[in-house]
Amino acid sequence: MWLHSIFDRNKKTAPLLLFDEVFMQRLERFSFRTAPTLRGAMAGERPSRKLRAALDFSDHRPYAPGDDWRFIDWKAYSRHEELFVKLGESPQSVNIHILLDCSSSMVWSPARSVSEIENNLQDPQSNKWDRARRLAGALGYLGLAGGERLEFTPFAHTLDYGFGPIQGKRQIIPLLQFITGIPPSLYQAEKEGGGLVHSLTSYAGSHPQGGLLILISDLLNTATPFSSEEPSLEAELPYSPDEEEQAEGIEEWEDLAEALRYFPPPRWQVLVLHLLTEPEINPTLEGDFDLQDLETGQSLPFHLDEATLAQYRLRVRRWCADVQSACARRGATYARVLAEWPFEKAVIPYLRQRGVIQ
């Protein structure tokens, strides 16, 4: 079996702790559901709306000087005494772009302190970070196994060095090794002119051809080039629970909508995977705490009681709804994924329901 061969021949390389053969086998029967309007290379497996001279006939056009004589329809010439060229669908591969957020909040874990995470960045033991990389690896596998052209780029304060563009199943193991070795970044959002929005706009400018863009992020890294004075969101609490009046004027999702403006359909098809954890959505803390913002390193004291947490949960639901609305306005697909969801029983069916894979 092909899966056996690619795993067996790489036994001397770094172990793929996040991926195994059983995990890959579960993905064999799935593929991306992409719009036929996406541009790509003309050698691939997907049907395209572009009609070119082809032996697989679907339409005609008059012959023009320079056309290949092999595609002339001689039967039509015998009836009409006029030269016509056969047109058919040109199969193409889709350009897939995976952007993985590796900012500080992506490695947050309720069981580990900030100092413990700082001292062990290579293995932060974060279920959220492991799930993000596992999800990125699964989607990258689907692209390469389906013959698509893939480019993988991590980002935090700015775009980091990526992997690709690559194509073909032989690139799956190198891609998974690259994803496994990505380190998270700490305290990047406090730098001026960076963050999620800056990374997205930079990426759009360097990839004018378009394709399928998959953004995997908790959307907490929202320092933007448009305003460097806005406070960043807290890793545990997207909104400070006792500062509702100030938070009303902080609409980070509007910056996301502004960034998505640079990925217009039909040239782009955008999928935003909003990865969060259950403690971030429904915290159970109670008492006095010093909450530290993993994006900036700043700490603030809070008194958390049931009324405060109820307000927080309401604001989180409102925030997620606003992000979903912002994505819809730009023609992007939004899907909120919890890190605690089992991949096979929850994540894959959810993505199929959202029309991401088939």
Could you list some keywords that capture this structure?
358 residues, alpha/beta, Rossmann fold, 7-stranded mixed sheet, 3-stranded antiparallel sheet, 12 helices, 32% helix, 21% strand
Count of discrete domains:
2
Helical/strand content category: alpha/beta
User: What's the tally of helices?
Assistant: 12
CATH class bucket of the largest domain: Alpha Beta
Low-confidence segments, ≥5 residues, pLDDT <50? 9-15, 42-55, 223-250
Spatial gap, N to C terminus: 23 Å
Overall pLDDT = 75
Determine the oligomeric state from the structure: single chain
- The fraction of residues assigned to DSSP E strands is 15-25%
Task: Kindly provide the radius of gyration, computed on alpha-carbon positions and rounded to a whole number of angstroms.
Answer: 24 Å
How are helices and strands ordered from N to C? HHEEEHEEHHEEHHEHHEHEEHEH
Roughly what percent helix? 25-40%
Biggest sheet features: 7 strands, mixed
CATH architecture of the largest domain: 3-Layer(aba) Sandwich
- For the secondary structure, the number of strands is 12
Question: What would you call the shape?
Answer: elongated
Classified in CATH, the superfamily of the largest domain is: von Willebrand factor, type A domain
CATH overall fold name of the largest domain: Rossmann fold
Task: Describe the structure in your own words.
The chain has 358 residues and is of the alpha/beta class. The chain has 2 domains: 8-26 and 93-353, 3-Layer(aba) Sandwich (Rossmann fold), CATH 3.40.50; 51-89, no CATH class. It has helices spanning 2-8, 21-25, 74-80, 114-118, 127-145, 172-180, 196-206, 244-247, 252-260, 278-281, 306-329, 343-353; strands at residues 40-46, 51-53, 59-62, 84-89, 92-101, 149-155, 163-167, 211-217, 268-276, 287-292, 299-304, 333-338. Strands 1, 5, 6, 7, 8, 9 and 12 form a 7-stranded mixed beta sheet that branches. Strands 2-4-3 form a 3-stranded antiparallel beta sheet, covered by helices on one side. A hairpin with a 6-residue loop joins β10 and β11 (299-304). α5 runs antiparallel to α6 and α7 (196-206) packs parallel to α9 (252-260). The longest helix has 24 residues, at 306-329. The radius of gyration is 24 Å and the shape is elongated. The model is unreliable at 9-15, 42-55 and 223-250 (pLDDT under 50).
